[in-house]
């Protein structure tokens, strides 16, 4: 839970007024003392009169009572203990949006996905063209980089057939150097070679690009 503290401001006016009351009280005592001293000097044999009269005591008692009430009993908003309000913590829901080419195909209703393995950008460009041309034949497509996708999801591509109709995966892959896969297709090539993914029933096509002057042209 979160604690939200209400605004708290000390009441400086109370302290100022209390100080003024005490100053007034001190002034009255000093004035009364000054009045008594000349009279005593003029007539030393006269009976000493009390320093304060009845009215003075009443006034001093009233001032003292007002000061005590102001300091200790007055319920001021500024002197209250800060209140705390308990509010429930807002928990944001974690996003559960699916990612990957399968989710994109399901969301957009496209039945063609074109993967590209490109080193200089040529295969990527051809993949984009093929995905657009597929719309002319009723196969709207998307382009995907195998390095950014979980290629094991290919094993679930046939599951979209019941939702979207027959789906097709096209691999437009170039070779690099002496027939080696391009950098973004190395991991995918290793999965196909070592992991033995089960791609039975998947409809696919492969389009190889490369330079035939190399001895191992399109070996991959």
Task: Give a short summary of the structure.
The protein is α/β, with parallel strands linked by helices and 220 residues long. The protein has helices spanning 12-42, 54-73, 101-108, 122-133, 161-164, 186-195; strands spanning 2-5, 84-87, 112-117, 141-144, 168-176, 180-181, 204-209.
Task: Note down, in words, how this protein is organized.
The longest helix has 31 residues, at 12-42. The chain has helices spanning 12-42, 54-73, 101-108, 122-133, 161-164, 186-195, and strands spanning 2-5, 84-87, 112-117, 141-144, 168-176, 180-181, 204-209. The two termini are 59 Å apart. 39% of the residues lie in helices and 16% in strands. It has 220 residues and is of the alpha/beta class. It is rod-shaped, with a radius of gyration of 47 Å.
Arithmetic mean of pLDDT: 77
Q: Report the sheet with the most strands, covering strand number, pairing sense and barrel closure.
A: 5 strands, mixed
Distance between the termini: 59 Å
How many runs of DSSP E, i.e. beta strands?
Answer: 7
In what range is the share of β-strand residues? 15-25%
Number of helices: 6
Rg calculated over all Cα atoms: 47 Å
Order of helices and strands: EHHEHEHEHEEHE
* Unreliable segments of 5+ consecutive residues: 1-10
């Amino acid at each position: 839970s979160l604690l939200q503290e209400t605004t708290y401001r000390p009441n400086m006016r109370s302290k100022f007024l209390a100080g003024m009351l005490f100053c007034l009280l001190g002034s009255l005592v000093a004035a009364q003392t000054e009045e008594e001293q000349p009279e005593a000097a003029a007539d030393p044999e006269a009976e000493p009169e009390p320093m304060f009269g009845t009215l003075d005591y009443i006034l001093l008692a009233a001032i003292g009572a007002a000061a005590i009430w102001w300091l200790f009993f007055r319920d001021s908003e500024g002197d209250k203990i800060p209140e705390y309000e308990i509010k429930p913590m807002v928990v944001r829901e974690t996003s559960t949006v699916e990612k990957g080419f399968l989710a994109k195909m399901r969301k957009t209703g496209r039945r063609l996905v074109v993967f590209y393995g490109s080193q200089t950008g040529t295969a990527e460009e051809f993949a984009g063209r093929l995905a657009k041309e597929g719309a002319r034949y009723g196969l709207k497509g998307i382009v995907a980089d195998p390095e950014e996708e979980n290629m094991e999801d290919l094993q679930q591509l046939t599951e979209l057939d019941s939702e979207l109709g027959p789906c097709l995966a096209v691999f437009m892959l170039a070779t690099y150097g002496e027939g080696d896969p391009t950098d973004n297709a190395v991991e995918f090539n290793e999965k196909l070679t070592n992991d033995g993914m089960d791609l039975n029933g998947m409809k696919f096509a492969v389009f190889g690009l490369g330079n035939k002057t190399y001895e191992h042209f399109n070996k991959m």
